Amino acid sequence: MMKQLSDRDLLTLLKLDDHKAFAEITQRYWQDLFKHLRLKIKNGEDAQDMVQEIFLSFWKNRNSIHCDEQGRLSSYLFKAARYAAINYFSRPGITIAGMEVLEQMLAYPTATKSDEKILLKELHSVVDAELSELPERLVVPYRLSREQHMSIKEIAAYLSISEQTVKNNISAVIQRIRFRIGQYNSDPTIILIIAAVTLLNQYELIF
Predict the structure, then answer these.
(1) 68 shares its domain with 121
(2) Counting C-beta atoms within 10 Å of the first and last residue's C-beta, which end of the chain has fewer, N or C?
(3) Looking at the structure, do residues 85 and 110 belong to the same domain, yes or no?
(4) Which domain covers residue 167, as residue numbers?
(5) Is residue 97 part of a domain?
(6) Segments in the chain below pLDDT 50
(7) Residue 34 in contact with residue 48, Cβ under 8 Å?
(8) What Cα–Cα distance (Å) separates residue 37 from each residue in 32, 49, 84, 93?
(9) Contact 32, 51 (CB under 8 A)
């Protein structure tokens, strides 16, 4: 019976707290979401946990969820998966398997151009404020990397320190910036920007 219903019909039942409708939606999309996330993050166990969280959130927010213009729930669920992947890569200690992952993350449209400019301006203000509070030994390598586009090797030679020290100092700055921005705003667009900055820096620190 449930298998024959459309996503829109299932959502209507779900908003009436119908657990069978929820079970059908979960079964209908679980494997596709899992495969999608496993491909993105290259970790099956974490992908499974993320899918569980997506559906838990789906149930909690069922009364505010809507189908797309085609009457499907896939748009909502895969958007949730995209944000889950972005948040995953913003965790401390997570490295990038390749630049392709970052490009896939950034392929998702964020805010409008005008909103994005405002957010970026605010973001730069927060970053500048954080940098002003950090010791010079951390900030100088970071600025040389970000503003002068110098490589790790070039920075190490310029400052007469080891490449590992350069990596450690830049990583320390990135962690502080990530933490500060996380406190500043948890809006999904801000999270995307954080993830983009983090991913770019982590990728460069591999080399």
Answers:
(1) no
(2) N
(3) no
(4) 106-205
(5) no
(6) 95-116, 185-207
(7) yes
(8) 9, 10, 9, 18
(9) no
